[in-house]
Amino acid sequence: MSTAMNFGTKSFRPRPPDKGAFPLDHFGECKTFKEKFMRCLRDNSFDNSKCRLQSKDYLECRMDKQLMAKEPLEKLGFKDLMDQPGSEKTESKP
């Protein structure tokens, strides 16, 4: 019985994850939306269920600015928030 390990026989090929990894917002294009979402989380003891509208707006900004792949919002779990009043499409400076 051989106890030697042969690391060269199996080749590992990394591949990017299907979801969850996307470019950083180096130019701060969605910074306002991110800050609103983070403020909502802090104000609600990090209960993300209370910040779904802010999360949706942030993800829409990221998709609009090509910082993540376009996905139907229904697939991202926001079917109940579609076309809801108060949803922001344009960035407004605080």
UniProtKB/TrEMBL annotation:
It comes from the Eukaryota. Its main location: cytoplasm. Residues 1-20 are annotated as: Disordered. One of its GO terms (cellular component) is mitochondrion. Pfam families: CHCH. Residues 30-63 form the CHCH domain. Keywords: Cytoplasm, Disulfide bond. It is found in: Cytoplasm. Belongs to the COX19 family. PANTHER family: CYTOCHROME C OXIDASE ASSEMBLY PROTEIN COX19. This is Cytochrome c oxidase assembly protein COX19. It comes from Coilia grayii (Gray's grenadier anchovy).
